[in-house]
Amino acid sequence: MDPSELQEMFDKVELDIEDRNTETSGNKWSPSSWRSKKVTQDVIYDDKEELDKVLAKLRHLPPMTSPREIKNLREQLADVALGKSFLLQGGDCAELFDYCSKVPIENKIKIILQMSLILTWGARIPVVRIARMAGQYAKPRSKPTEIIDGKEVLSFRGDNVNGFDPSERKPDPQRLLGAYFHSAASMNYVRTILHSDFAVLHDPTAWDLQHFRNSHTREEYQSIANRLSDALNYMKVVGADASQISNIDFFTSHEGLILPYEEALTRELPDPDTQELKWYNTSTHFIWIGDRTRQIDGAHVEYFSGIENPIGIKCGPSMEPEELGRLLDIVNPNKEIGKVTLITRYGCNLVDKYLPGHIKAVKESGHVVVWACDPMHGNTEQSSSGVKTRNFRSIVEEISRSFRIHQEYGRTLNGVHLEMTGDSVTECVGGFMELEHHHLPQNYQTSCDPRLNYEQSLDVALLIAKYHERKRRGSIGLM
Ligand code: PEP
Ligand code: CO
What we know:
CATH architecture: Alpha-Beta Barrel
GO molecular function: 3-deoxy-7-phosphoheptulonate synthase activity
Radius of gyration: 24 Å
Binding site for phosphoenolpyruvate: 132, 314, 345
Binding site for Mn(2+): 93, 377, 419, 449
Strand content: 5-15%
Oligomer: single chain
Distance between the termini: 84 Å
Largest sheet: 8 strands, parallel, barrel
Pathway: Metabolic intermediate biosynthesis; chorismate biosynthesis; chorismate from D-erythrose 4-phosphate and phosphoenolpyruvate: step 1/7
Number of domains: 1
Low-confidence stretches: 13-25
Bound molecules: phosphoenolpyruvate, cobalt (II) ion
Keywords: Amino-acid biosynthesis, Aromatic amino acid biosynthesis, Cadmium, Cobalt, Manganese, Transferase
Number of strands: 14
Structural class: alpha/beta
């Protein structure tokens, strides 16, 4: 070979290596490229060596979700964005490791399945269910510290960072491993019960209605259950395919806040259809960016821009419409339908002011998103007893106004995002059971935000179902 040819070849190889180096040194996305950006709500660990050991172990552990499941959810959310299905996302504000137990998991699955049954009946379209569970362990906080019994302590940041007990507030890396194992155990039990008789929807009348203290709700639910049961029996008799109804897809989600954890569980795996290698967050199916961490040039947005999972973005009053369009371009450059769920959370008094501008901005951007209403986070108030609560009326009003505004602007509200539990807690006031402020101490359990209890959650589903029924008859409004 001629020496000049050899030199040319050598230079080319050098150039290739340089290109690859610049790609890894900051320009190209990788599961760790967020590390060069500003991390909002960062957690500071004293023992970095221990943190590294924990992260190495997490990188070694197997995925908890698969590309097939994640793709399946993406396809279902594309249908939601096009108005062909409705999204129900719900669960605890802060899931505790302690909730990883038979009864709390069963109660949560049960309430979500019952609500989805009611919503399917009301909207006459399938319901996609995503639980805020099996990983919803991290919390952003407005203040890094709080005063307890006159003493300043670090705020509780969720079970995967520190403990709720004031003596356990120091961030502990071992809790990240705790998060993995509690997620895995919760997911395992969810999959187990969904593959057993627990989830049989063929006979809605078999659902246990004992919990309904309120006779109005009980009769409404009973009547829906009877009608559904009749319809399903009819389908069976005429030989129609009821597999759509009996087939239970159930997905998990959490806020993607603690990026070292998310990074360690992000794996390069083949797309189940094309075999092309892609990056999947295998700790869950769906993750969202919180309202406090969605800065365009921040670490969270960088991380979220490279993963295949469907993602959510919380969208509150401080989101500028122009910023929203740019954000969507960054996290979804190919404008894939339903890849992004915008979870709006303004409060019932501010939704009229901010939602229209956000709808217009998204329309102009050319993105087709899932619009979900989170009627919880803009409606938190202080009860006279000092605890945080939410009024059922404000929650329902924000959903109702969101339905109306979307319709006025030529869009559809595609879903709801709720903080709720299948247990009979007393954290939010109102609902058909008329829970009052003085009832709150009876069973106030939450370690973060107040959740709708079992009955209040069913009430919300019934009101939305009835809204759809009335809309079919030509009138609108939730109440
Ligand atoms: C949450 O969903 O619990 C939460 C903290 O919400 P946001 O980011 O909308 O405040
Ligand atoms: Co919350």
